[in-house]
Amino acid sequence: MGEASLTTLHLLATDPTAVTQAAELARDGQLVAVPTETVYGLAADANQPNAVKKIFAAKGRPADHPLIVHVADKSLVTQWAETLPDYFDALADAFWPGPLTIVAKKRAHVSDVVTGGHKTVGIRVPNHPAMLALLQQVQSGLAAPSANPYKKISPTTAEQVLFGLSGKIAAVLDGGSCEVGLESTIVDISSPTPRILRAGPITKADLEAVLNMEVEEPDVHTVAVPGNVKAHYQPSKRLTILSTQALTSRLQLGCAPNTGILYYSSEIESILSEHRDINELVDLKLGAEKTKYAQGLYYGLHQLDQSSATEILLEAPPRTPKWRDVNDRLMRAAAQ
To answer: Measured between alpha carbons, how far is 91 from 309 in angstroms, rounded to an integer?
Structure first.
């Protein structure tokens, strides 16, 4: 039976047998979408290259894009990474389990399918009880990018996984909504000075406070890591990012019927209360505080993308270092 005709099981993590069933599928070389605190991942046993190849087929992801190996605890990192710097323990103790991915030189046995042909490997200890229980049962690393079609919005619920990949994967392990809502920070630790390769919930300031050393964060780099393409995390409908002032002007002038509005400020909420019924707007409010905004961003984009909205207008968040990961995702989501 072809992969496109699979019956995708919806396994509830609250069921005591669900994690065991998901582990059996993974050991059997099947794909299982899994909950993490960041976004849902599409997992395969990282020690089975043929299983990992199915991830690329299901997502439509280029084979030279590396994957992140998820492990149950930091003691397992040396099974995948050949060398680690002196500051590794400080990083791991401070931020694992959690939304931090390290990139280190890979051991010889790590398949090029997992690393996209590169000499380094990304590794993370996720912070979700169902995922950690699954990793304990599988007793292997799970290679897992986000559980969505390539370049589309990352899923933060099992329902969003099924919307994009039902019929292409064996199962989704439903662990509820993701607590963080944005992908992990990726830090290259293969050299003496750590370097951020993807902005995430853990900031440069967070890292430097723990390590007591400089952490590089280039605005642009060419290192192949997940999410480092111009157009990514995209809804199927056109997304336009506007400042609060520009969105206010747009709303006051009148939007086309069924325009989707994703916003967070009280200013926009006030304007919408006056114009919503007239213009048949489809609107959704995000939290104004950064953590809440990030948690709801992909969910909100999914909701509007699957609604009657014909296009999506998004109120731009602040442009400060704390919001760097949000702005990075939005830049790619709105790229033409």
So the answer is: 43
